[in-house]
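Quick check before the chapter quiz. The format below is the same one you will see on the exam, so make sure you can read both the input and the output lines.
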Amino acid sequence: MDLFLTHFPTISEEQKAHFIALTNLYQDWNSKINVISRKDMDFFFEHHVLHSLGIAKILNFKKRAKVLDVGTGGGFPGIPLAILFPETDFFLIDSVGKKIKVVDEVILALGLKNVKAKQLRAEDFGEKVDFIVSRAVTKMDIFVPWIKNNIRSTHNHSIKNGILCLKGGDLTQELKSFPQAKRYPLNSVFNTSFFETKEVVYLPL
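Here is the expected output.
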């Protein structure tokens, strides 16, 4: 939490309380429905919350912007981003019902008003959004066809509407077909060993 506050020092007391509550909420739900590996729970805040907020170091979502989190799993990166940007509307979808159950319960426990979650495949999401976020869901050449028709044509942010993906490892081959993609290494933002190979990949659409 101390590391988190050095990077996001201006959050409100309510936001701070929400972030603090996340660890206990996920520990409780993970004991009932395994959405995060047991080993990973020991590093929950760094590996899941702070990692999700790497996207916020690339872009500040505007008021009433719409953001879709595809393959949200247990709610990442969508829930941490929704806490950080309470005036942005987030849609969290996943094809696995038990994961969406956990997401719904976390949203309810925190009283988040700007998040909706649904068991849904990406191809079946019918709304237009400003940005699509994800965390290591699949390779970009598979991912882009799923969601390319869901991006709004009007742009209101400092960068064009598109995809912001959290990825790791060697992305050279994966991004070969996407020369317009921009890569933002997170080890230049968060100085811990976990982020050494982590990046945000931005693809305008």
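If your answer matched, good. The mean pLDDT is 95.
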